[in-house]
Sequence to fold (178 residues):
Amino acid sequence: MTLDLTPDLRTIETPRLLLRPARRSDAGLVAMYAGDRRVAEMTSSIPHPMPPGAIEAYIARAMAGRDEIVWIMDGTAHNLGEVMGVISLKQMDRDQSEIGYWVAPAFWKTGLASEAVLALVDANPLQNTAIFASVFQDNPASARVLTNGGFQYLGEAETFSVARNAHVATWTYIRKLS
Fold:
């Protein structure tokens, strides 16, 4: 028998969203939105086209909470979509994490990403001292989400994008929490 010591994935409430743990029933909407080339190409890890079973495996990993802690942006309490995007924290060493997020295209330019990032940073569920983030340089909207959330610019780098099958220039940010 193994003991799973994953952090408590409590729901985090914002004015328009509930950030809640992923569940199997999210697979269809996550697949539809993450399968959109515009979403996939703004992430480092989402493939396009989406291989069969990839979303189900992602949801299973998210539910296990081992690789990263994942929250679904759920707006049903406010008559919005059940799955509007995803936000996550990947634990790093020295009480630090890396935040990642994407929002479904139907909800772009609504401030939901900024709202989710601010709520997650304020809740600080992993008790981090700092949270890092990186965005592709051709995605200035995502950079604005981070600066609106109090993140400070650190510098430039590059990372591999699975959907683009290429290395992409990034901007890196940090938000110090203590």
Summary: The helical segments are 27-34, 37-40, 54-64, 112-123, 140-148. The chain is about 25% helix and 30% strand.
